[in-house]
Input
Amino acid sequence: MSDMGLKEFAREYRKRDAGLKGLDGSPEAVRKQNIEAGRKNFRTFCNLRNPEFFKPERTYQDDICNTLQAAYEKRLINEKTGQPYDILIINEPPGFGKSYTASTFITWVYGQNPKTQVISVSYNQTLSLTFSKTVREAINDEEIAGDLDYYAVTSFFPDVRIKYGDGAMERWSLEGSYMSYLATSFDGSITGMRGNIGIIDDPIKNDKEAVNDNTKEGIWSFYKNTFSSRMLDGALIIVIQTRWASDDLAGRLLSEFPDRCYELKLTALDENEKSICEDLYSTRDLLTKRATLDEAIWLANYMQVPVDKKGALYSTFKTYDVVDLDEADRLINYTDTADEGSDNLCSISAAVFGRYGYVTDVYYTDEAMEVTEPETARRLQKEKVRECLIESNNGGRGFARNVMRHLKTLHCFKCVITWFHQGKNKRTRILSQATNVMDQIIMPEDWEKRWPAFARHVKKYQRKGKNDHDDAEDCLTGVVEMINGDVKGKKKARLGSKSRYGI
Output
């Protein structure tokens, strides 16, 4: 199938999978209905234009296409300001077709309003001209006489035509317009044109540019002083890129203009560690990339979580090979129950030798309490925990009682469960104990593979700025506080002896 041309594939795909069988009427009538639908809906337009790439099962494309159309139609409203977002940021992994989708969007926009003026910018002129060429060639594409299964841009929008003799690739016009499109780069210029739509596609080329402060500052200066000044009133700016650093263009925009920016963030792996599109990148391929790529590159490029190593709270952890639980001075556990929203339950068990905590188990999940309560109990038994401290802030007291109940059914009677209310500021605790965490916490050698979600969140936590997750860091802090005697519960419940419960 990969050897077939687009037009040939389109014919076969339409006959097999287009979903037209549910429509009544002749092939001509079906085509007419499809064209009308594609004029109104960008996702449908994409599916009809290139069914080889825009497949219904690629559901991540729904998010991109629908968000682009909603932004264009001013339907993305900031509830705080009551105004539509005028900056759309799409962060997407490499290889998922972000540039092609953006160029297809421009052809659809011209169909909505042929008078639209578009300015596109890429990290160099070659890439910018490639983007422009893709748009031009799509508009110049012709229908095939008698072929009802192939859809050109002119099938939907017959009045959208490149002006005769307007051949410059970097600057051209549609029929009836003075200036329709300008392609440039960050070291280029924008003269003689203003835009209703501004597209910035891949502002950073590679990791070398991502760590070059001069390069990033040059991009920001171009955006602020040149690009944005050429936008007309009510213009939509679209930044579509792969993340590289917290202070890349997307990061600067989100920081400087939070009320104006709408962010769509697509990760290569979903919350279940599965690929969002198996036929583009299989889960196996992505897990291999994660294992081989530098962690910071993986997180930024594929998970859209830029991590600045110099700003990370934790650098590297000490590791161990094996540990004998029976030789430990203490066997402890600190559990922070999940609140509503994006919080995770985090439960860390450790074998304490002197002032050092050897982490033996991490339970890190967003599953419901009916799952986490018995599982926490099972893990406490497995790790032979004798002291368990549970934060009661988020329903932890009830959680603790239920864990105790499950421990009884497991015939585990030596664990002391303690719950307490954590009144100290979470971020302040995390930052103040960071040095002790790095000094006193010792991880198993394979901890990143054993607990991948926990490891990702721990390694990306930044000293400055906003962090999306802090449950892992909070729990590590709690373990250190337990070791050092800095936190104690007020309510204790010992399970007691077997005979007490008639066993």
Notes: The first helix runs from residue 6 to 17.
